[in-house]
Amino acid sequence: MSSEHPPVMLVDGYNVIGLWRHLQEMRDLQGFDIARSHLTETMVNFSAFHGYKTTLVFDAYVQATPAKAERITKNLKLYFTDHNETADTYIERQCGKYRRDPLRHLKRIIVVTSDRAQQLTAVGFGAEWLSATALEQEVEATLRSVQSRQKPQKANTNNLLGNRIDSKTKAQLAQWRNRLN
C-alpha cells in the first residue's frame, strides 16, 4: 500500500464495546460514553501506529438525530449514524463505494465486527474482515511492541564529562564550585 492510499479501517464501535471485557465493564459501571471514550483513545494510538485511516462507527438508530462525523485526529474519526440507520448499514455503504472504486486494487479496507452477517457482506464486497477479538489482540500486541521500544536504555556513563577528565581538573572544578556557594 502506498502512503497515498493508507488502509481504511471501519470499526463497528458498539460491537467492539460489547465484546472487549474491560469495555463491557466500563459500559456497565460507567456508561456508554466512558466506554466509547476509552475505545476512541485506544484507536487513536493504534491507528497512528499502523497508519490506518480509521472510522469508529456508532449506531444512533434509536435517537432522532442526524448523522454526525467528528474528526479526532488525522487517522481517526467518529461517525454516528443517522436516525434509523445502523452501523452495519453505514459500513455496507462504504464497502459498496470501495467495490465500485476503479482504484480499489491500490486500496485496502478492513471491517472490524464480530457480526457474522456483516462479516460475510464485507468480504463479499472485497473488504478484509477482522473480528472484535482479533482487533483486541492486535491492539495488545501493538502496545507491547511500543512499550518494548520505549524501555529506558542503560545510561553509558563513559560519555559523562566527569568520567573523561583527569583528577587534577576535577579537583580544580570542585574548588571553583565551592567558592560559588
TrEMBL record:
Region: Disordered, residue numbers: 145-164
CDD domains: PIN_YacP-like
Domain of life the protein comes from: Bacteria
Composition skew (Polar residues), residue ranges: 145-161
Protein name per the record: RNA-binding protein containing a PIN domain
InterPro entries xrefs: YacP-like
Pfam (any one): NYN_YacP
